Each structure stands twice: as structure tokens, then as C-alpha cells.
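User: I'm curious whether this sequence folds into something compact or stays loose and floppy. Could you predict its structure so I can see for myself?
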Amino acid sequence: EISLGLVGSEMCIRDRDKNQELVNRRKASHLGGGEQRIARQHEQGKLTARERVILLLDEGSFQEIGQFVEHRATSFGLDKNKIPGDGVVTGFGTIHGRLIYVFSQDFTVLGGSLSETHAAKICRVMDLAVKNGAPIIGLNDSGGARIQEGVVSLAGYADIFYRNTRASGVIPQLSVIMGPCAGGAVYSPALTDFVMMVEDTSYMFVTGPNVVKTVTHEEVSSEDLGGAKAHAEKSGVNHFTASNDVEALKKVRDLITYMPQNANELAPNPTKFEFTNSKLSTINDVLPENSTLPYDIRKVVECVIDDNSFREVHEDFAKNIVVGFARIEGKTIGVVANQPAAMAGVLDIDSSRKGARFVRFCDSFNIPLLVFEDVPGFLPGTDQEWRGIITHGAKLLYAFCEATVPRITVITRKAYGGAFDVMNSKSIGADLNFAWPTAEIAVMGAKGAAEIIFKREINEAADPQAKWLEKEAEYAEMFANPYRAAERGIVDDVILPSETRAKVIAGFKMLENKAETLPYKKHGNIPL
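Assistant: Here's the prediction. I'll summarize afterward.
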């Protein structure tokens, strides 16, 4: 009995020692690169990788995968510098109760550099996300490939790129840039659906300022070359901008509520929604009496959708078109709208790319599309033609033609030329087209049309200017209204602005069971 007691006591001690070893290993993993590097991260206004995950996900929901993984490299002293987790926190949890997969790169561990095992951890959660049909969110904060590992780190990037591409259109993929993201690392976020950047602390570029200076002799800072503002306004790489880490994570939590879990589901419906009825009369006064004056199309959008539900995408890029998520009676929709307050709402290269990308996301994930049209045409000029407005404009056309989700268009004012066709006309598959009484549906504006059609009469008139004005008015009376299009069934109904919300609600309800499939093919050849 005495000997058995001693054995039992020794076993308990050994068990306690093993348990303590696990606790110690967890502590080491949670410390990342150590307290000094964590303090430096905080001094730069940045959260640590683990802090970010905890803030992103519902409280207590995070389940970590691979926290004891260590790299296998031995060259250049790496065998003496092993930290559990190897510079990335991976796992799953929930956002508003819905399953989410996440990886968060840890800049305190070897600069967040990507190694063979670091990449394998990311690939592991990406595979799980696809298998289980749930979104994946990547929190990027990395100095790039771990150069001490050479080609295996590059192969790790390729493994991630491959999975990004395979997951595209299957599950939503979101990238949050919360530190450096340079070189090959930038292509993973570029392959995902949306990119969010943090002001002042994040940047993206293929080649950094030093390489740029060496090759092109240009002097440029990291911020000017690839900061949040540069990519939001100039390149369009950045879809959303946040002022700090906390705001970025809150925005992601909000954004994910507008998306389904995967391509086989619908976006969740909030149980409650609010709509201010006074907006039904406000909408009547948005358009100026003079059809040549600008107005903010967002005021029209706000008068149709649920209160405070609009989440604009690419707000600072290609401002002549407005895209974003909204809700009508609690249900997610995608909004695409020409913006007369910027460049008169013309379509150009950047706005066409911006619109096409958003339309394709919505179509991938069963989000109905509501289009507000006020477009005078495509932007003319040598710059646009030489840079390929034909091909880029065709991207938006292709995106709408390919989309099988419910699609409704509301023409508020101008709908001219080929741009009328491109902006979700009935002839390219829109389910319903409505026009306000102010709509002008024609090949071109009355002034230009009169100059072409009645050129001889104007030139031969005693007063050419007066004759031009007379013929302009004649053309406008005939075509600068929605009724000729309505007579031909090109628009389904002419409605009062105040009727727009009710018509759209009824339309989307009618289209809830829409079933349309594309002809069998491997994939289309979008005009890239």
C-alpha cells in the first residue's frame, strides 16, 4: 500500500509537470517575438497579431490551430531562433455567431516573414474554409519572404496564391493590410475580394522606394508609393481605409454581415430594419430642374434603401461611379450608380473596372443588384482610347451580361449611347428597368444630335444659332423623355421618384426564385 501510494504520488507530480509544460509552451507562443518587440509594435500604433484576432472575432470564440508549429530551417542561425507559431496566428471563430477562418501575421516574430511552415499554416486554414464553406480573413503584417529559407518561402507564397484562386467565388476572402506587405506578398491580397488598409501604418508595393530609386531614379516614400491613401485614390487596390487597427477590425466585422458564408447561401437577413418615411418625399427634390446641373446620386440611393445601411466600396477611387452594399427591408443588395457630381457621371477606364469588379463579386455570392443610371456616355479623349477604354468598358458590359442574380435598373436622368446599354439595360439581361419622368433615353444629348441631324438646315438658316436651338428643342421633345423607350418595352414602367422604393421592393420579391443558368463552358474569356 505504501509503495502504491508513492507511485501514485510520482504520477501526479509527472502529470502536473506535463501540464505545466503545456502552459509554458502556450505562454511562449502567445509572447511571439517577446515583450520588447510587442512594446515596439504598440509604440508604432499597431496591435499584435493575437490582439487583432481577439478583437476581430466574437469574445471567447477563437480556436487556434498550429500554435506550436516551428520552422525547420537551419541556415544562417535560424536553428537557434525558433518561436512557437512561426510568425502567424491561425484558427477559426465566429463573427456575430457565424463561422469565420482567420490568419494573422505576427511582425514581432522575424518581421512576420513567411517561411515554409508559416505558409503551410495559412494554407491549412484556407483549405478548411473552403471545405466548410466559410469566409476567410487575412490580417497581413509581414516583411515578405524569409530570405534565409530561399526558394521554399517563395513556394509557400505560390501555395497561398493557388488557394486564393481556387477559393475565388466559392467563399468570401477579405484582406486587411495592417503593416508592410511587399514584393510577392501583395498578390495574395490582390486575389481576394476586398482589401482594407490602415492609414500611416500599412503599405503595399511590388518594389519598394529603394528599388524604384535605383531603377527609375524617382524619389518616393513608402507612404506615397504604396500607402493607404495612394492605393485608395490612385490605383484602386485599396477598397476600404481605416484610421487605426481597431477601426479596421470593426469595419470588417460590419462588412461581413452583408455577405453570405459561401456561394451556395444567401446573405443573412437582420431581424429588424428602419426606414424614415419622410425620405419618400425627399427623393422628389434631389434632381435639379436644370438637367445639365450635377447632383449627388448617393442622396437618391439613401432615399431608397434602409436607414444607415449603405456601405460604400472604393469610396475614394473612380468617383464618377458609386458602388457598395446596402439593405432593403433587411436584405443585402449591391448598388451600382453613376455619379453626376463627378465628371458628370461619365464612364471611363477606372469606373468601368471598379463597377465590373463589384458586379462580379455580387453575382458570385447571390447578392441582387440595384442600378441607378444617369450616364451621358463614355469619356472621350486620346488618353482613354490609347489606354484601352474599349477593353475596360467591355469589362463592365461583360460583368452585367454574365450576372444571373436579380437585377433592377432605375434611370433617373441621362441614359445616352452605348453607356445606356452597358449600365444594366434590359437588352443585356436586366430583369426590370424603371425610368423616372426626368429620364432622357437617346443615342446622345439633344444639342449634339441636332447639330448632326439638322446640320444642313442650321448652316443654311439666316440665323444658324436660333435654328440650332429650335432643332435641339425638337429633338429633345421627341427623345429626351422615357416614353418612347416605354412604348417599345425597353423600360418596363415610368415611375415617380417617390415610388422607387416600393417598386424595387416588389421587384426583388418577385425575383426571389429567379433561376437562370449560363451555357455550359469551362469559363468565359472576360476582356482583361
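Summary: The chain has a mean pLDDT of 91. The radius of gyration is 28 Å.
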